[in-house]
């Protein structure tokens, strides 16, 4: 029975603790393992707090809270894991840390135990090899916070048994999550396609076309995004956002479309990480300036330029088979709350309008960053029946 499977979650940080809570709430016995007893204590009290809050809100009964707490176990040694049928690792995003851990797990876990990684940017195939059980290994990319975010990207490696991927799909259904299937490519779906939201906004800022608040207003007011790019980078943390851009850029062999920004690097170097340090693109010690944006034409130009770059990225990902049409749109609406799926948006915007817009950008800048995706002709024929 799937809901009786025992889970091991290795890494009790932001993601591991959330995934552990989710698994326990879904009826699994869960062992949370971390090297740091402080991390284990923090995870245990955070989960207790979350469960109490759900009880206060009437979303869980006291009996359900007690049962969930009873299913959670915490350990500072991997010796607690051998009884598990599934292990999800959520330790630091570093190859050496994950590789060493996966190698050790392979010796401890039963031969039929399935192992998943919550990596956001490392190669699932590389980690699958380190796991010593590539057929029983896949990427399960949860979003933060795992409890609230409805999407999980599933990333099978080249050697993953399709039956294991199917089991992961069923498991996520049981946990109330929606899944999309992604190729093992840098950034998978969401972190790849969303790159221009940040990098193009930074480019517009660096060119002196507009300031942060104008660019943010363009995206929220014209296209209905929940947060503008600069407010969002400050919220995510410029260190985290910069690291993801770097990793996608490096992983794609220095593809100019993903090139990181020196402006953001400088903020990171100066410890202006955003909300968490009180200052990033905005200064959070002061009230946010309420600006009036009277230049509607400028807002429209900025908003359409960023949207075009996002659509170009989505068409490219579809063309190169990173995910299906429906999964690309599902991933961007559920993973990063975009107001519409980008592929669907290209139809409303007009595909020929997208191609012309990209050609104009390329004509002006003559940079590879602005090349139109080779996927557009196929995208036109796909939508012309
Ligand atoms: N934070 C996010 O927004 C987010 C979103 C999606 C995916 N991820 C991915 O999830 C993973 C974890 O991220 P996080 O933000 O939870 O990190 P975190 O720093 O909050 O937690 C990592 C935990 O792993 C523990 N750890 C490190 N090495 C260990 C080992 N060998 N054995 C046991 N425990 C060990 C640390 O003590 C720490 O408690 C990373 O791969 C990250 O890329 C993070």
Could you explain how this protein is built, in words?
The protein has 385 residues and is α/β, with parallel strands linked by helices. It has two domains: 2-181, Rossmann fold (3-Layer(aba) Sandwich), CATH 3.40.50.720; 191-382, Orthogonal Bundle (N-(1-d-carboxylethyl)-l-norvaline Dehydrogenase, domain 2). It has 17 helices and eight strands. The chain has helices at 14-25, 37-56, 62-71, 95-108, 124-131, 162-174, 190-193, 195-206, 212-222, 229-236, 238-251, 262-269, 296-319, 325-335, 342-349, 351-365, 376-382; strands at 7-10, 30-33, 72-75, 86-89, 114-117, 137-142, 151-156, 178-181. Strands 3-2-1-4-5-6-7-8 form an eight-stranded mixed β-sheet, with helices on both faces. Helix 4 (95-108) links the parallel strand 4 (86-89) and strand 5. Helix 8 packs antiparallel against helix 13 (296-319) and helix 10 crosses helix 11 (238-251). The mean pLDDT is 96. Nicotinamide-adenine-dinucleotide (NAD) binds next to helix 1 and helix 4.
SSE blueprint and pairings:
Elements: E1 7-10, H1 14-25, E2 30-33, H2 37-56, H3 62-71, E3 72-75, E4 86-89, H4 95-108, E5 114-117, H5 124-131, E6 137-142, E7 151-156, H6 162-174, E8 178-181, H7 190-193, H8 195-206, H9 212-222, H10 229-236, H11 238-251, H12 262-269, H13 296-319, H14 325-335, H15 342-349, H16 351-365, H17 376-382
Parallel strand pairs: 1-2, 1-4, 2-3, 4-5, 5-6, 7-8
Antiparallel strand pairs: 6-7
The protein binds nicotinamide-adenine-dinucleotide.
Nicotinamide-adenine-dinucleotide is lined by residues 10-16, 33-36, 39, 90-93, 97, 101, 118-120, 142-144.
